[in-house]
Amino acid sequence: MRELVKQKQIIMQDHSLAPEAKTHQIQNLCLTHSSGPVLLEDLALTFTYSPSSSVFGFTSVDLVNSGADIEVNIENVEEYAELTTQFCLDKGIARQLEAFYKGFSMVFPMEKLAAFSPDEMCMMLCGDQNPEWSRDDLINYTEPKLGYTKRQPRLFKIR
Questions:
Q1: Domains in the chain, start-ordered, CATH in brackets?
Q2: Among candidate residues 14, 26, 78, 81, the one with its CA nearest the CA of residue 49
Q3: Record's family (predicted)?
């Protein structure tokens, strides 16, 4: 959907096209599917969100009042994409985020973490994802096995 919205915006901003040409190109925009191009209207979408699993505890939710009665078309696809994204990232996962927050706070109380910057928190929780090792680091922090020793001159060749 986001790709379709992006294509529509590109056409709308093209000043070299006459209004009729813009309308024609927008009406012919298609979604890409493995079986070929698909017109948005052929999907028969409405302003509802249907989760991919029953684990969420609901079968569908109206994104706007009477959303099941409003068909998604090329004129309102931006609103549909925005509301769907907003629902999924905000309302749709609010319970999961709250549960994560409570569990995380039991291990790392938030008031005690306020003293750290986001970068410091990332380093504490995830470690250094791209450490730089010197030859001396390798010699000091590793234990050679399988007949090798730290005294062998070619064991720790670093370029």
A1: 2-92 (3.30.2160), 109-159 (no CATH)
A2: 81
A3: Belongs to the UPL family. K-HECT subfamily.
Average pLDDT, the chain: 86
- The amino acid at 118: P
Question: Could you tell me the CA-to-CA distances from 73 to 33, 41, 114 in Å, in that order?
Answer: 17, 6, 46
Q: Which amino acid is at 15?
A: H
pLDDT at 159 over 60: no
Mention every residue, 6+ apart, whose C-beta is less than 8 A from residue 112: none
Determine if residue 49 is left, alpha or beta; phi over 0 gives left, psi from -120 to 50 gives alpha, anything else beta.
beta
3: enclosing H helix or E strand: helix 2-12
Query: Using 50, 70 and 90 to split pLDDT, how confident is the model at 126?
Result: confident
Average pLDDT over residues 118-147: 82
As given in the structure block, the two tokens for residue 80 are 């549909």
Question: Could you identify the residue written with the tokens 């409405």?
Answer: 46
Condensed to tens digits (0 to 9), the pLDDT of residues 70-105 reads 999 999 999 999 999 998 888 778 888 889 989 988
